[in-house]
Design a protein that fits this description.
With 91 residues, this protein is α/β, with parallel strands linked by helices. The chain is 49% helix and 13% strand.
Length: 91
């Protein structure tokens, strides 16, 4: 299961919003494949998938530029991965 992730200020311009606009034009809901917001949003989506039987995830940071990419990766390493590896993750 691949999920795009983005942690950023919702008011800031970003590549995701252009992506979302294109999805809207095509009549596609981007929220099925993309999680926006804090780590808790991503973790809740992952829990739902684990409950449905998914056991492997590919996290794809949605970032523009090296600094934004580093922020996304650092957030995943600090918040998402440790929480997902915890034995109480699916409860």
């Amino acid at each position: 299961m691949g999920l795009g992730i983005a942690r950023f200020d919702f008011d800031a311009p970003s590549g995701f919003f252009r992506f979302a606009e294109r999805c809207e034009e095509a009549g596609v809901d981007p929220t099925g494949a993309v999680v926006l917001g804090e780590a808790s949003h991503l973790l809740e989506r992952m829990r739902a998938h684990v409950r449905a039987g998914i056991s492997k995830f590919v996290l794809v940071p949605l970032a523009r530029g090296d600094d934004a990419l580093a922020d996304q990766l650092e957030g995943a390493l600090a918040e998402v991965i440790p929480a997902a590896e915890d034995s109480s993750f699916v409860r």
